[in-house]
Amino acid sequence: MIASLDYYNVIWDSPSRDHNGSMPIGNGDIGLNLWCQEDRDLVFYIGKTDAWSENARLLKLGRIRIQISPEFLVNNCSFQQVLNLRKCEIVVRLGQHPTEIVLRIWVDANQPVIRIEANGDHPFDIQAHLEIWRNEDRFLEENEIHSAYGLSGSPESVVVHADTTITDQNKVIWYHRNCRSIWAETLALQGMESWLDQGNDPLQDLTFGGLIQGENFANSDGTSLKSTKPEKHHLVSIHLLTAQTVTPQQWIDQLQKLSHQTNLISLNQARKAHQKWWTDFWNRSWIFVSGDEFAETVTRGYILQRFMTASAGRGKSPIKFNGSIFTVDALLDGQDYDADYRNWGGPYWFQNTRLSYWPLLASGDFDMLQPYFQMYIDAMPLAKARTLRYFGHDGVFFPETMYFWGAYPQDNYGWPNQRTDLPVHTTTNQYIRYEWQSGLELLTQMLDYYAITHNDGFLCSTLLPIAEAVITFYDQHYPRSSQGELRIEPAQALETYWDSVNPMPEIAGLRFVLPKLLVLPADLISHQLREQWTRLLLEVPELPTRQIDDQVVLSPASEIGPKNNQENPELYAIFPYRLFGVSKPNIELARQAFTHREHRGSHGWYQDDTQAAFLGETDQAYNYIVNRFRQNHPQSRFPAFWGPNFDWLPDQTHGGNGMMALQTMLMQTEDQKIILFPAWPQNWNVAFKLHAPLNTTIEGVYNNRKLEHLSVTPEARFKDLAQMAPE
Predict the structure, then answer these.
(1) Do 197 and 337 fall into the same domain?
(2) Looking at residue 72, what is its pLDDT?
(3) Is pLDDT at 727 greater than 60 in this prediction?
(4) Which of 229, 261, 293 is at the close of a domain?
(5) pLDDT (tens digit per residue) in 236-257
(6) Quick count: other Cβ atoms within 10 Å of Cβ 83?
(7) Which terminus of the chain has a smaller tally of CB atoms within 10 A, N or C?
């Protein structure tokens, strides 16, 4: 089915006016926003998943401008720009034979290098110019401080430090180096001074940048690399590195060594390996929908979002929900901001971040789950120490909002002048004060990953340590009622209902996770843990309910506090904690809750389409997902730049939700059971391949309400398969 992918290549027949007309492309760690301007200059921003500034902002590395001369070769000539998904390359054609110039741009899937190949019918010159906008130290002021979320209200000025360029005869070298760090400040502010000697500052001396080089090129003005003579063929390579080094020179030496090693691999060999990686990626899974006027839009949205996730999902840090590595300059409230700006800044919101990762399970993109899981594993030591410091007991909780090393953003925790009489464990930000359910949902994703892969190494190194720590927190932190039931208080139901008791996300999460933990391989689970989990499961209260219009429905909590946001916590019993579904009892209780939900939407982090699919509400799932994939940003040319919605552009929660919803409409699994077409519209045909528990893949073609082809690997899993015919 990979041949069908070519139909969804993005093809533009005219240049773009500016960065709003950029195309994304990346290798999982390095991402470009690339566009060709009306003067035929090729321009692209470079992003990288680990380019963290001293203020924990995820910065761009720079902007590159590619110019071709003589100008008459490209001025007013015909034009085509193609994003080739299968090969993961952008091809720009200027003119036609016999005066054609073809630019081929790709980010090596296996090496940290950008390749710009330029081929022409006649000899021409080419120049690569580095454009730096961080050319002097400056203060972040007024609304721009939101891009350094966590530092609003800081007693000290927030400074953006300048980049550095190095003069070299035949190269252009540049970098940003963190001469200071907020890491220690976050810990000291949050009562974790003792951790300063135990942890390692991930920001201090972190250096990121690149090297531009090419055969028969020379540095013309310090930031421009120009061909020394006209030729028919040119290759410009941009090598990129992020590293913590004692001195800038050590970083330069590492970068030089990296470029040398990369260049030992021939271009043809590297290109072949690059294309193989992407061929293997597209062969992992697919969904191609047809049958009505919206099917193509939905398919394109799914494919392009998966492509963007793959382009940013294999780096050191997880995908940023608020723009990923594909942010561009923005005009907000009449003020211009550079491409480093993003609403909500550098911290991770779990509720937002998770939505890029849920669909990676069914798509089989397991390698991209690892940075996400690893961030929480790396944050565990600090989380354990913080729990002991704050509450005097074992276990861990993960803040809803946290920097990648695990600390709260400072302004969420609260500055000293804001914390009058607040105990050390209490944040000034009430939106996230007691929102700690993230550990349970993270466990749910890990359990699903293990169910599919049966990777015992992952179970022992990652899942079980998280499970032991998270469950221990719930066991030791909360009291029991007079009836011996767990009473989760103080608590809140997501950001929406403050000062609640027994919130649905926590109760549903424990009721879902604990039985899954108890059936893990007995020889890998200690007797002590198994006893704890068994006992705690008996102590978890029933799911909270309430009455609306004489109907008993699921409730956000057993006792509901003040309302302050627009989420539906009661529906967490449907997704992510699949206690209700098309193959499960009491589904009407969940359907009534869904019918009576207060907040509805098909944009951003709203999960109506996925929750409707789990309930078999086909029409609603269809309407919501169609609306979702039709909502690209009106000023952006690329059809999968969603948002900004509640966050920023391109909105990764929006696209991740769409992927999850489409998968769930097509297939649902629980334990060994696999259900096909649980919420599939009768007017949609589909060709698909998806992943299921027990290392199972399901590949099929459904056409005109008939299953024309079905392949299940291994074949023994056929017995666990059920089909729900669309009605």
Answers:
(1) no
(2) 63
(3) no
(4) 261
(5) 999 999 999 999 999 999 999 9
(6) 21
(7) C
**Do the domain assignments include residue 287?**
no
**Residue 490, preceding bond cis, omega within 30 degrees?**
yes
Domain with residue 91: its CATH number is 2.70.98.50
Verify that 383 and 475 share a domain, yes or no.
yes
| Boundary residue ending a domain (208, 238, 261) | 261
Q: Give dist(CA 152, CA 144) in Å, integer.
A: 10
Q: Do 317 and 245 fall into the same domain?
A: no
Inter-helix orientation angle 618-629/652-666, to 10°: 150
Whether 74 has a pLDDT exceeding 70, the answer reads: no
Distance of CA 32 to the CA centre of its chain: 16
pLDDT tens by residue, 569-584 = 999 999 999 999 998 9
Q: Are residues 233 and 346 in the same domain?
A: no
Q: What confidence tier does 623 reach under pLDDT thresholds 50, 70, 90?
A: very high
The per-residue b/e assignment along 48-76, b for 16 or more CB within 10 angstroms, e otherwise, is bbbbbbbbbbbbbbbbbbbbbeeeebbee
Strands 89-94 and 101-107 come out as antiparallel
- C-alpha 115 chain-centroid distance: 25
Is residue 418 one of the residues assigned to a domain?
yes
Strand partners, 676: 667, 723
Total domains, the chain = 2
User: In this structure, is residue 315 part of a structural domain?
Assistant: yes
pLDDT value at residue 73: 63
Which single residue is written with the structure tokens 């410009």?
A: 236
How confident is the model at residue 235, as a pLDDT? Answer: 98
| pTM attached to this predicted model | 0.97
Whether omega before 371 lies within 30 degrees of 0, making that bond cis, reads no
Position 418 scores a pLDDT of 92
Whether residue 334 sits in one domain with residue 211: no
Backbone angles phi, psi at 312, to 5 degrees: -130, 5
Do β-strands 348-349 and 335-337 pair in parallel, antiparallel, or remain unpaired?
unpaired
* 68 pLDDT tier (thresholds 50, 70, 90): very high
Helix (H) or strand (E) segment spanning residue 79: strand 79-84
Q: How far is CA 460 from CA 368, 376, 396, 524, 619, in A?
A: 19, 15, 18, 8, 42
- Looking at the fold, whether 185 and 330 belong to one and the same domain comes out as no
Tell me, what's the pLDDT at 246?
A: 98
Assess whether pLDDT exceeds 60 at residue 44: yes
Cβ atoms of residues 127 and 220 within 8 Å: yes
Q: What is the number of residues in the chain?
A: 727
Supply the range of the domain harboring residue 645. Answer: 303-723
447 and 370 in one domain? yes
In a domain? residue 280: no
Percent of the chain whose pLDDT exceeds 90: 93
- What's 675's domain CATH number? 1.50.10.10
Q: 243 and 324 share a domain?
A: no
